[in-house]
Amino acid sequence: MPPRDPTSQPIVQQLFSLLRRHFLLVCSICLLVLVVFHLLRVIYTRFFHLAHFRGPPWAPFSRFWISRTIASGDSAQIFVDVNKRYGRLARIGPNHLITDDPEFVRRILAARSHYVRGPWFDAIRINPEEANIVSERDRGKHNHLRYQMSAGYAGKEIDGLEDVMNERVADFVDRIDRNWISTAAKTKVFDIANRIQFFAVDMITHLCFGKPLGFVASDSDVFNFLRTIEMQLPIVQHFSVFLELNELLLRAVRIPFLKKYILPSAKDKSGIGVIMGISRNVIDERYAPGAKPKRDMLGSFMKHGLSANEAETEVSISLVAGSDTTATAIRATLLSIISNPRVYARLQNEIDTAVAAGHLSSPIRDDEARRLPYLQACIKEGLRRFPPITQLRERVVPPEGDVYNGIHIPGGTFIGLNAWGLQLDAVYGDDPDVFRPERWLTDDADLVLRMTQVLELIFGHGTTKCLGAPIALMNLNKIFVELLRRFDIETIDPLKPWKSTCYGIFFQHEFNVRITRREVASCATSDSGDTTSPPNPKSPDSS
Ligand code: HEM
């Protein structure tokens, strides 16, 4: 047989044999191309794209700076430092800016703004295939969901919203009174951080499902719900930075075998799946043919056309959106009050005087609380000094770009919102980092208006502004009065009053306090003639 002419081999075979013979050379060329490509990209992002914005030296090169900052558990403070050091619009990633300028944030979030929610929001879906009101990026769909849910959140179509709150607040303080009172001779260490969270979850589930989940009654994290969120959130935060992970997750959940391992399910025995299971049972009953409509939050969602599946997701998300935030607001404000003797004494005095004058029901009514100026100032100052949501919540610059202080921002840039930085604005004077409720009591109405406009940004602004704000504020209006009229509260370790970690929302633990009953009988009520329980003589620690 004549030898085979190598040129007569098919082209693919020829290529393979060439590759085999020069394998190392081919690999080196590929590597070189990749390195050159990466270098060009780095040079472009560093020196051309967003080059006018200053920031931490390594931030422009990759997203690892943001990811490392989030993982540190101290991102809120780090972002504050970045804007202080590098300007009100600073660079924190290859395509990422962050701002602490209230006016600019209001412009970004305004109803008619062309900015939209960025892919950051995909990371906060419970199910990667379905958006919810908090994560929906499509403006039209979001507006529709908001229209369906606003009446329920505003309490307009809920019977007895305030009664539910009163019931939960009274139950919470009564349990403290029964079980956690210290005396001159004995200390009962009470970790109020966890208990406040139990209270917040019970409050929201009571409003949503018509009954609390029983966290306060069992004095425990029922179904490991809170622990699961605490384990998952630090991971989820990285999905908001490395957006490819979201895409990967979306593909993975489309494989039925993987789906059941990845997504929470109503059949789970712990975590958010249990809440979905409970929501599912309630929703099945409520959506059953012939079921009687109820005037509660779910009833309002149904009335405005939310499907059973949508209702299940939205109820679960309201619990996640509302419980940690409210709990952080209560804890941070309480800690600020009890660690400032001037503030503590003045607030307790305002409460005692109102009680003595017969102006307060028990639990205090929302309208009564609004008439206590120092209480209102403390609540505002607590929210200002410790905004409970510090996630970047990135918005995307519209395709035509934008201009900030004369500098062009290219379309498609992500702009993160620096929630803590915003609340240190110069509008608050020269001591914005001090908890000083008196700043809200000035006679300068114009200043109060300007401060209020900045403060309101802690709930967002425009068409994505927090729907739960009225519920959160009503809660705050009640809880401090009910705690401080009955009890004296001291931190056990003033040098280390709590452990607080920030992953966009806060996880706070070991806020250990010592609670004693107050000598002043300040629980008498006014018009209702109602009285709260006096100190319980059967309590083992009654002094
Ligand atoms: C002090 C407590 C709270 C704070 C600081 C807070 C803060 C916020 C912020 C900043 C947003 C805007 C997110 C964005 O940028 O798009 C938001 C949205 C939202 N919050 Fe709150 N929140 C609080 C309490 C609550 C509560 C108690 C609930 C539910 C009962 C709730 C339900 C929601 C919902 C449903 C949205 C989505 C609104 C929309 O996209 O149209 N929040 N919240």
The radius of gyration over CA amounts to: 27 Å
The CATH topology assignment is Cytochrome p450
Helix fraction, binned, reads: 40-55%
| Order of strands across the main sheet | 1-2-8-5-3
Terminal residue distance: 112 Å
Total count of helical runs of at least 4 residues: 21
Give the beta-strand count: 12
Write down the overall geometry.
Answer: globular
Assign the CATH superfamily: Cytochrome P450
- Unreliable residue stretches: 521-543
Bound molecules: protoporphyrin IX containing FE
Q: What is the highest CATH level, the class?
A: Mainly Alpha
Task: Provide a brief overview of the structure.
The chain has 21 helices and 12 strands. It is of the alpha+beta class and 543 residues long. The chain has a single domain, classed as Cytochrome P450 (Cytochrome p450), CATH 1.10.630.
Structure description:
The chain has one domain (59-517): Cytochrome p450, CATH 1.10.630.10. Helices cover 51% and strands 8% of the residues. It has 21 helices and 12 strands. It has helices at 11-21, 23-47, 64-71, 75-86, 102-109, 139-154, 161-179, 192-209, 215-218, 225-239, 243-253, 256-262, 272-287, 297-303, 308-338, 341-356, 366-370, 373-385, 419-422, 445-455, 469-486; strands spanning 89-93, 96-99, 116-117, 190-191, 395-396, 402-404, 407-409, 414-417, 487-491, 499-502, 506-509, 512-517. The strands form 4 sheets. Strands 1-2-8-5-3 form a 5-stranded mixed sheet, sandwiched between helices. A hairpin with a 3-residue loop joins strand 10 and strand 11 (506-509). It is globular, with a radius of gyration of 27 Å. The chain starts with 10 loop residues before the first helix and ends in a 26-residue tail after the last strand. The model is unreliable at 521-543 (pLDDT under 50). The site of protoporphyrin IX containing FE has 22 residues, from helix 15 and helix 21.
